[in-house]
Amino acid sequence: MKQQYLTIETEGAVTVVTLAREDRRNAISEDMLMEIENVFRAPPRGTRCFVLSARGAHFCAGLDLREHYEKDRSPVEFMTMCQAWHRTFDLIQFSGIPVVAALKGAVVGGGLELAAAAHVRVAEESAFFALPEGQRGIFTGGGATVRVARIITPARMIDMMLSARTYDARRGLDLGLCHEVVGDGQALARAKMLAAQVASNPPTTNFAIVTGISRINDMSTTDGLFAEGLLAAAVQTNPDIRERLEAFFSKKTERLEPGTR
Ligand code: 1HE
């Protein structure tokens, strides 16, 4: 299917999805959301890791405010749209295929909600994080109350929304909004490098990591430990890992060193 607001390129086992609505700072309209949903619902064959990137100076300015203004949606229409955002971002988080986001410039409102659904977030120095919804007189609707609040705590999210506080990339790193900061213009290359490495992990292991940990976090201790045991039983007994363990015994694997990667 032809996309109007995204580009999709497959490089080996890595599929790079690029938001391509630069003139609107990659703000997400209903049609654009549907395109995002489609690619994560039916990943190109052979995809073992996604990179989520953006054209232009900004990652994503969130909800398309102009479309919202012009459509003058009813409560039910907006609720239905929020459900589409939730469905799409759930697909990103839980499809079982890891997603590495390359962030820069504005990562705000729904743009932060989108980034928070990714598993690894690399940010350029130019990146900044904000939830300006309060200032606009609206509320988050793409999952921030769940995903962003879990990363930075509900108290900090409340402050962020009330005060329209902005965090730069370094502060975002301290708070967990991103996992690594790189120079301007370098996030995509770094994200591709990480994605290639992630893609070389066994798919079952990646599936367990990206679908299991967040869900277990929602469970009681007893249920969580039980679920962890089940996941580990499925992953650790995968015959494919024997070869990896043999490589480790014969010292053929890359050594873990402090500060690498
Ligand atoms: C937009 C949008 C948008 C820009 N919807 N059109 N999100 C926000 O409140 C962020 C709103 N945007 C901004 O604060 C700024 O645009 C940026 C900091 C991201 C970038 O600034 P700048 O100076 O590079 O660009 P600009 O001149 O502000 O914007 C360029 C154009 O993009 C301009 O249109 P033009 O016709 O004047 O060229 C802007 O109107 C347009 N544009 N952002 C529509 N968001 C499921 S609920 C989720 C809740 C939310 O996400 S609320 C949105 C929060």
Automatic annotation (TrEMBL):
InterPro entries: ClpP/crotonase-like_dom_sf, Enoyl-CoA_hydra/iso, Enoyl-CoA_hydra_C. Signal peptide: none annotated. Keywords: Lyase. It comes from the Bacteria. The keyword Lyase applies. It is an enzyme of class 4 (lyase). GO terms for molecular function: enoyl-CoA hydratase activity. Gene3D superfamilies: 2-enoyl-CoA Hydratase, Chain A, domain 1, Lyase 2-enoyl-coa Hydratase, Chain A, domain 2. NCBIfam families: PRK08150.1. Belongs to the enoyl-CoA hydratase/isomerase family. This is Enoyl-CoA hydratase. It comes from Mesorhizobium atlanticum.
